[in-house]
Amino acid sequence: MNRDFGHPCFNPGTVKTHGRVHLPVAPRCNIKCKYCDRKTHCANENRPGLAAKVMSPDEALAYLSDVLKREPRISVTGIAGPGDPLYNYETFEMLRLIKKEFPDMILCLSTNGLLLYDTIYNLVDCGVSTLTVTINAVDPYIGEKIYEYVAYEGKTYRGYQAAQLLIEKQLEGIKAAVDNGLLVKINTVAIPGVNTDHVHDIAKTVKKLGVVLMNIMPLIPQGDFSNILPPDCQQLDKMRKESSSIIQQMYHCRQCRADASGLLE
Ligand code: SF4
Ligand code: SF4
Question: How far, in Å, is the centroid of ligand 1 from the Cα of 43?
């Protein structure tokens, strides 16, 4: 990765010089992760807090202009929810508005990946250059314990079939993104007793597809998983250490609030 690349999440060397802002323009989601309570922002990227107000693309553009006046070191604008960005047409409208008004801005997106393959050309056309996909399993038998349902092309899938479809779409989407020159990171929510022994397999699978960075995040117990204790620091360290021989690990994620803006430090 270019040392000067000004994305503080992908390049820890820039956390003190470059900032990011999240724009909440994407309310709907097409899957149901069992650790999501739907009351706050997508738990795959955001720390739970008060549900931030959903903005229209025009409102978000005005907000972005205002934030940039106050913090000109912001170099990245990300769309990470409250639902799945790719399942909301407002995301694409927003990206086009930013590209027009702020052509130097790095455009970033965080997704569950279900629609990634289907929308990749649109994303490239909008100028998105960095992407985070949440991959919690590459084995449907593990995935079916994590996802309650997956809705795709007018049909709702459950159990093994749901996980199989999601994983298939995520992996083909990541490959298409990498083939189109996007820098891809994955988030993996570590859920003790469910996927913590599987993290290594996830690392190996995504590395082969060209993913550059892995962010292993501790479960925040909510929704159906509200009774599962998150991994402790030792467990997290162990998982990161084991996977670091396969793929670069992210150690500086702040599990930002949905309305976060500014420098990571
Ligand atoms: Fe919730 Fe999962 Fe959808 Fe994110 S992708 S909004 S965590 S169900
Ligand atoms: Fe970066 Fe982590 Fe914050 Fe996302 S949640 S903007 S990856 S530091």
Answer: 6
